Amino acid sequence: MAALVVVAVIDWPVEATDFANRLDPPSGTHLLGTDQLGRDVLARVLGGVRWTVGLGAAAVLVSVVIGTAVGLATGWLDGTRARIVGTLVQSVVDLVVALPALLVGLLVAAVLGPGLAPAMIALVVMGWAPFARLAHRLTVTARTEEWVVAARSLGAGPVWILRVHVLPAITGPLREAFTARFVGAMLTLAGLSFLGLGVQPPTPEWGAMLAEGRTYAFVAPWLVAAPAAAVVLVSALAGRSRIR
Amino acid sequence: MRLLAPLVVVLALLVSACGGGAPSSGGGIAVALQFPPRAGYAFDADDGALLTKLGVAEPLVALDRQGDPVPGLATSWTQEGSSWRFVLREGVTFHDGAPVDANAVVTALTYVLGRPAPPRAIKGIGLQVAAEGPMTVRATTTAPDPVLPLRLSSGTTSILSPAAYATGQQPSPIGTATGPLRMTEIRGTEGATLERNDGYWGPKAASARVDVRYVTDPQTRELALRSGDVGFAEGLPETSKAGLQADPSVTFTEFPSARTILLQLNQSAPPFADVRVRKAVTTALDRNVLANQVLGGSALPASDLFGPAVPYGATQAPPAADVPGAQALLAQAGFGPANPLRVRLWTFPNRPELPVLAQAIASQLQAAGVDTEITVGQYDAQEPEVLAGRYDMFLNSRSYLSDYPDAASTLSSDYTCGGSYAIDRYCSPAFDALVAQLGIVTDPAARAQLYRQAAGMLTTDAVGVPIVHPRNTAAEKGVTGFVPDPLDLRPVLPVLAPAG
Amino acid sequence: MIGLALRRSALIPLVLLVASAVVFCLSRLLGGNVTRSVIRSRSLASAPDPAAEARLAAELGLDRPLRDQYLAWLAGAVRGDLGRSFTTRAAVGPEVLGAAGVSATLAILGLAVALAVAVPAGVLAADRPGGAGDRAVDRLGAVVLAVPEFVVGPVLVLVVAVWAGWLPALGWGTPAQAVLPVVTLAFFPAALAARLVRAETRVALAHPSTTTAVAKGLTRRRVLAVHVLPRSLTAVLAEAGPFLAGTLGGAVVVEVVFDVPGLGRLLADAIGSRDLPTIQAGLVVVLAVALVLTLATELLGRALDPRLR
Questions:
Q1: Residues 14-33 (C) with a CB less than 8 A from some CB of B
Q2: A167-226: per-residue pLDDT in tens?
Q3: What CATH number matches the domain at C106-273, 1.10.3720.10, 1.10.10.10, 3.30.930.10, 1.25.40.20?
Q4: Interface test mutation site (partner B, options C258, C259, C263, max chain B beta carbons within 10 A)
Q5: Where does the Solute-binding protein family domain start and stop, copy by copy (chain B) (predicted)?
Q6: Taking CA atoms, what residue in A is nearest to B353?
Q7: Angle at which helices A206-214 and C149-156 cross, to 10°
Q8: What ipTM did this prediction achieve?
């Protein structure tokens, strides 16, 4: 994780072109070869960490904040009207959870056009719902716990109770859900970019690189292999950290 | 491994159970085409041209290999002021058996002229058609039109049987056209089945059956050809050239296309209102490197708006880059190291070569001290902006013929004052006068001369930079007879035959 | 249980109604010049022509107030008429249903292949913890879970169709053409299901009823089949519903890579050409199927697993 952050912060020479040495196979000077513009593939794969991994994480982070806020609110509210609002929100949540991730990406692209911002919006539109569901369930449970009931009877305000008692109790499960959702978000972003609906070339996003490289698969298989391996590696590592 | 073994078994079972998917032989071929029908084979869409390319539907006028009009469903035509008289071929029947006569032609052309957005070839000239005799049709325009026969060579003006128009729905080409191949089945945008029309009036189709598949992805087309799924594929990826040329079972053909990738420069605002800045950009770019290295020879460097696909196109290579020259021009215009020129470059990803070229152009401009910020976005969102002159540089791909082999309408819409697609915002009375002449001159040689002059004028005024002319490719495997058509307007499939 | 089923199924049409209105309005309000996009999707190089755009808008009914457009659509939809495509002018309903059929076939075959591989693998792995099968499910499963479809698809095409030449690279219609997309689609659920089955089987094996059955002298194979398998399948079924729903509209990558005329690709194409009636109909169908399947899975899960009742 720390290594990924370091890689993401460094400015790799992702745009340095060299037309005389295009589609060069891996060698001492270019460890992973060069692409159709003579750019160093290793530099681009490393430069892609910022986009693929960084944007994936950012999208989940925003989703966590929005989802948790919604879940806390609906879970905490009491009374008939609140229950109606809660049911409504929960059915929206059910709806969003049931939607295929890529389809939401397509939809948002349909309305806003392909691009980085629409893809991120799609990820958040998709992403907040599971966290809202989780936070809602945990809050409902926490609300009925003795110590929370006690705090309430002592006159503590809802915001204070939420912040001091409920939020800490649910951060653990939420953090676990974060890692679980991160891989999905990253792969969805890369998939959208692969379909040409997300990050656009020349940005070195892995899905976009893979789509670009597919054209050259016969003469320069490393253009497909390098970003593919990067996607698989990061998603496998994140998956392992989730299980352990 | 336990996971993999059952997978392999399942795979093997499925394979042995189903057998291969290769098309059955018996005089039939399968082809992979690049562009699927856009609107269910509607004539008021590009699909009309597709039907002609397939050899299914025919317009009144056919084209020879030079792009000159030759008899098709009409055998002769004569101009009388602002109208043309077409004499129809005797004894031709539609695939459904109905005869081709003046009434059928009038029905077909009246239908397509009445669509909300009629085909480009015949719109905006006030065209009206009427039967003059059983086999004679008179076509009248508001003003005398020198190229009406060429306009009526467009596949979008093909003639179907009256039965097709009687349904009230969009006319279907199944069993209603006249061409050497008869469409028997439409599989949406996936493909279509064609069978030989044994009653065709001209040379019969070389295959008894053609299985047409539309495959939009170039890589997939190449794979389909290599794996033998299809015997003919067009528009192959740049990188497949060497491999396919080396393969003895494959015949690979490369030919020019009537298309130019243009770096359009916004003349309506600084910095490109200054001709020196436009010339500086032109001078800084090395189009030979862009075509031969960046695009790997899949395009020809452009020195002119028109390329080798047309007789009046430029064939000499453009000059190499002159970076000091470009810097001098920029210095005259007030840009230099202290005050570098910064511009935005927009393009769109639908044609995958555009983002690649945009990168390369930015890096060549960098050498001359121009900072370029690239945005790859959606064409639909960019179009209103560039048309309104709210942009700096726009990398665009443009066909200079519009459905028929004549460039007048492109010159008029793209480069005259107030043209409907005047992205460069060029406005020159001298140029407009030249284009106006194209509305009168009939002689092909004289028109060609006017085209050369127009292109020369655009180059002199540095109206955008013609970057490259993409080349078309096609490959045959187990199929012979392909004839390349740089204009991309003539029938392709009827001459393809199974080999051996 | 029945009350829940009734309540939830009553909610589905309501959700569909709201969603259809939202999609209808958003796609018409935010999408820029729809008629220009439709004309361009029909005739690529056409220059803008306001007069033609106005005529087309009138023909497509886009010049009417938004509310009237939606009500007209809704009135048609209730009668089963989902309108005509802006680009092909064909009736949208049959086109969407045909594509949905293709996607459903793909999804069901994918799931069947995945389960055929995963269930035996998972049970065997749990049967011998630490054995070769267990390790394979662990390691291979972890890798497969990490490999997205847009990596599997192109690699399979390259290896199986091009280098080996065993199967056609693309298309849909013959059984041979279905193999590669189905296998690509099966990768992820196979790995997921194998892990789930293994975990559930372990739990079930440790359950007292299993121990009793073994003590009664039943063969190990029979214990696995009769006592353990049903329990582990419950967990898998809970995941199968969302998978099927997701594949129906979300297998865009597989459908694009293998050129399969499914719903995902139909929608992707329609979005590209701003064919609003097709987008609208496709999304409503995907949504409806997703909602119904989610509910069905949940109910099935409750019916099968007494703990959830």
A1: 32-33
A2: 777 777 777 778 778 888 888 899 888 888 888 778 889 998 988 887 777 778 888 889
A3: 1.10.3720.10
A4: C259
A5: 69-420
A6: A212
A7: 20
A8: 0.79
